[in-house]
Structures are given as C-alpha cells and as structure tokens.
Amino acid sequence: MSSTTKEWTLQAGEELRVEVDFGQSVELRLVSGHAEYFGAELGREAVYTLSGENGAVFSWEGCTLAVTGECASAYVAGETPMASFINLHVAAQQRRAAAHRAAEAGGAAAGPRILIVGPEDSGKTSLARLLLNYAVRQGETPVFVNLDPADGKVTVPGTLAAMAMTKPVDIECGFMGYAVPSSSGLPDAPLVWQFGHEDPAANPQLFNLLVDGAAAAIGRRMAADPWAAASGVIVDTRGTSDLAQDKVVMHAVDALGIDIVVVVGNERMFSVLEKRMEARSAGAGVSVVKMPRSGGVVDRTALYKQQLNAKAVKQYFYGTPREQVASFSAVVNFDDIRILRIGEDVVAPSSTLPLGEERKITDTLVSAVEPDESLVHSLLAVTDGPRRTDGDSMAVDTADPDGVIGIQALGFVSVSKVEMDRRRLIIVSPVPGRLQKQVLLYGNTKWVETAT
C-alpha cells in the first residue's frame, strides 16, 4: 500500500509543524522556494526521513513542501518566535565579528558564551540547535555544550558533552550525526563525560566537577584556536521550573564564563535570574535575555522521552537509517576489567545515623562494582584509566588513585549478558575485536535492545 503525499505551501514567515510517532516515518521534500529545519537549510528536491520527531520547517521567503507518509499532527503556523531568535543570533554574530577583529589585531578573542535555561519542553534544545546552525552557516565554529544528561542528544543518556560545530546539525539524525562511530571522523568527535544520572540533582558535586572538566577542555581549545574562541560557546541545560535552588546552573555560568543567559518561556525565571545576576559581584557583564516559547513545542510524555533515549542509544550502536554502522559482540572476562562507580546510588538520610554523627560526603566516592546479573542492559563508559598490575587490589578509595573522576569517555558498551558461572560478560560494542581498555565507568542508564 503506497503512502500518500501532500503538498504544503508556506508564505513568508510561516512554518510547517510536524509530529511523527515512533514506529512511523515520513519523507519531507522541498519542492520550491527556500526553507530550513531548526536553522539548517533544506536542499531542493532532497528527501529527508523523519521518525519519532517533533519539528518545524520555517521559510523566510515562502516555499512549497511535499510530505509523504502519515504524521501524528501537521499544520501551518503563522505566529512564530523566529523574529526574536534571529535578533539573538544577529547580536551574537556582532560579538563574533568584533572578537575576530580583536584576534586579527593581536588581542584576545572572546566570542559570546550563551547558556540557555527554561522549563522542560520549552524549546531550549531547538533554540540551541538553531543558533548553532546559523553560526556555522556564517563560517563560525562555536562549541556546543550539552549539560542535560536526561537527553541523549549528542551521545547516550546520562552524559555531558562538548563538541566543536564544524557543520550544521543533521536534519535527520540531529547531533548524533557527530557521534556515530562512522560519521565525520575524529575532528568532529564530541568530548563526553559519564555522569550516570539523568538529573544533576542526583549528584551535584560530581556534576559540577564534570562541568569544570568541560570548561578546562574548552579553554584549551580556545587557547589553541582563536577562530573558535571568537565563535563562542552555546550551552543547553536540563529543564527546570525553579532556579531558586538550582546551584548547578550558577556553577556552570561561572565555570564556563557565560556572559549571556537566555531564559526560554518563563517570566518568573527570567526575573529571578536577572535579580540574581545583578546581586552577584561576579555576575558583572552577564546579560539575561528573555525568549518566548514557541507554540509548536510539544509537552513530551515519560514514554516519549524513554523512546527518544532508546532511539539515541540505538543510533549510537547501529547508526542512522541513512548511515548505518555495525556493532559487534565480544566476550570480556571479569578478571580482565575493572568496573568503577562514582558516588552512591542510595544514600541513607541523616535521621538514620547514630546521634551526634554526620553523614560523610560520598558524592565522589569511587568504588569497585562486582559484576553480577544486575549489570544486564547497563551502558558502561570505556575510559583510558590505567590498568592495575598483578597483585593490586580491585578496591578503590575516595582518594581516586586512578584519576577516573572527570575522565573522558572514549565510547560505550552495552552489557547484553552476564555469565556468572563462567565469570564473563557478553557486551555489544561499536568497535570490533576485543575490548582494549580495562577501566569502565558504571552509570544508571539501561538499554534493552529491540528489533524495531
């Protein structure tokens, strides 16, 4: 049974908003005119396949689009926040131009450093993607920082990431186009840190340490590449409705040298942040900007988010429909690896401690994980942590002798089976051959591989 094709005509300043369920797919084609998807230009007559996607195709001048397949929802909207978004981009681009001139004159290149905050499902990531694409289209190479561990947009969930943007975000597979093993090569590969939780509040001390590590890595890149320094940084964050107690956001502002905080879709949050920045002596020069929430933003259900992250993990191991990659099974003996955990999953409340005793801070406690059946479906970060010589204890203390706190993840493997009688794991890896690294970092992220 053939799919039906419907043509949509957009006038200047309108956008086509589409929602496509998981398990369904539609083909999008630009028939005439000019259009863009979150700032990335559509090629004339090129076919783009969307699945499990909520998105919008915008046209500044008008266009005709052809959509083949069944959308959960599709409609043309004339009221969009694009005027506000383009004004923000123009302001950022003026800062970049000034920074490039300063660098050419032998001065310090300091491009805009933008951090985007707002409630969940307010369009933060869409705005970050649009600003990045506009910058790249003008020859810039901004650094994108993902501080939302709940969303596997760059790589697998439970991680933080930073990457230099050298090309527009792929229309079909998003930021994952930079992360799948076969795509784009090493220069574009993101830097990734295993956090192991979806919410920064689960371990704020560790989260802040990882942000510090990302800031240091970005600083090294900026020092070595004045053009990147002038291109600036754009940071996406975890959705929150109340910044009154959100100290990780303020830590990120300081650590990453943020000078523009963009608040999407929340008047109260804008007011709180504006007052907070004015009251902080360290906040001098930090502008707080308010952006409207797009009417096309969809409130995502818990099931949708679960499906979205499952899709991201599957893309990591098997690529996208357009750029498929192979993953491989491998056998790993318990004695050949060391699985480490940073922090504790469950911390006893202070009320349960003996009278007069205080709970010890365990957010950065490094401990060994003894393999058992609970590891099945776990995603483990492969690191370059040092091997232990024969006779060394597998136990690790809070001094972190292996330096695994803040260590970058080289990649990820999925545990598909634990064979306790043979003392070995069966893992899925995007790289063929035996596992070359010994130290793996445990996180709470699980992935059950399915056929679909």
TrEMBL record:
It comes from the Eukaryota. Its EC number is 2.7.1.78. Keywords: Transferase. This is Cleavage polyadenylation factor subunit clp1. It comes from Coemansia helicoidea.
